[in-house]
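Continuing the series of single-chain predictions for the mutant panel. This is the parent chain; the variants come on the following pages.
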Amino acid sequence: MTGITLGILTLAGLISFLGRWGYDDPYITFRYARNLLAGHGFVYNVGQRTLSTTAPLYAILLAGLGYLWPDPSGRGLPALSNALSAASVLGSATLLLAWALRRGQKATGMIAALLLSLFPLLLTTLGAEIGLYLLLIMAGFSAYDRSRLSLAAVALALAAMVRPDGLLAAVALALYHLWRCLRAGGRAECHLAMPWAPVALYIVLVGAWYGGLWLYFGAPWPVTLLVKQQQGQMAISTRFGAGFVDLVRGLGRQPLYRLHGALAVVGLARVAVKDRHWALLLLWTALYFLAYTLLGVSRYFWYYAPLVPAFVVLVAEGAVALLRLILRLRAPQTLSTGLTGLLLIGLLAPLLSGTLGAAWRSDPRLGPYREIGRWLAVNTPPQATVGALEVGIIGYYAQRPMVDFAGLIQPEVARRFTADSTYQESAAWAIQNYRPDYVVLHGNGFSYPAESDWFQAAYLPVRQFADQDSLWLTLYRRRTNP
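Parent structure:
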């Protein structure tokens, strides 16, 4: 009962502190859900079947929840998604704890679950599909650990439907199962012991899903992979691997995160020698990291969130090893208790600081983008097209056909990216080729095309939007119809 109460309080705290957290990318998925609810079909721009969301199943789930709790304006979808994400993070922490308890590692499980539920790198993805994606993968791995193979197949199939990279979880599980089988017997025994029914179930579910996407959109994969790879070619972009190095360096500048890193190294040694049941989680994490590095996609902070579960397990393993060392020193009880308390404070302090900081310093673009979208919804005709660099929040609130200067909605824009490309150039090309009725340009980074003769001849400024710091944007309207 105490665990349930603690879980409810943790969920309430996450929703309270981060319930209004948001960033641009998830709003693309929200718009798919909103159009589905409105009867416009599973599309971003009405009448255009392009799969521009990385999380199609998540969009359908949000639409289903929105149908159960109607909100004609659609404004409740972001808050609904934040609550679902928070509950998913808590669910993943619970599954991690249950997994550890089955292996007789209560302390490791409690520390790992606590760290996971407070890790800012994960919590700042609230609103996106990442929380549910991790929950389904953890559910699949946990089911496998309990020999519930059909349940594992269903959970991992759903994870692959939420995000295509969820397919890597099934690959990791297959490799791990083969490794266990070969250790226990020979190749022939492995063939006989292969769980063919769950394998077939997984293949049927995943095949039916991606076959349906292919029939509906003309391709089984979201265009986001192409776009992020194209963006990764740009000299102004940082690729996933280099971004990870920057992330580690940034965290390393904070002394208490160095404690996390040191404990994780100790934990890795413990898993390699003794607690090998965590090898499945580590294998999937390694495959995920390798795939994103080899794909050469541009870095985005939410790409690193799936690395968190394995990391907190390693930190927890290292922390338990250190606590056992303290106990073996046979120090006075007061000293042992004090050292244990200091260790827990050292582990939790940077996480709480980062999470509270995120709650107090939300994305500065959220307010101006939302204001622009609402202005467009009120002051422009429904068929007016709008061009912008980031179309998530603006497009969700405007509910107007969008032209995306980054190529997520119109992949033809992204195909033009080269090492020498800039987003100013892609904006200019998109404006000249798609001729949107309205254009949103960032005032501090888009002197071109805004100062170009051809743009000034075709567009006139309508209104400026800004936050309280350094972000300002100008909305332009096309002077005449083509």
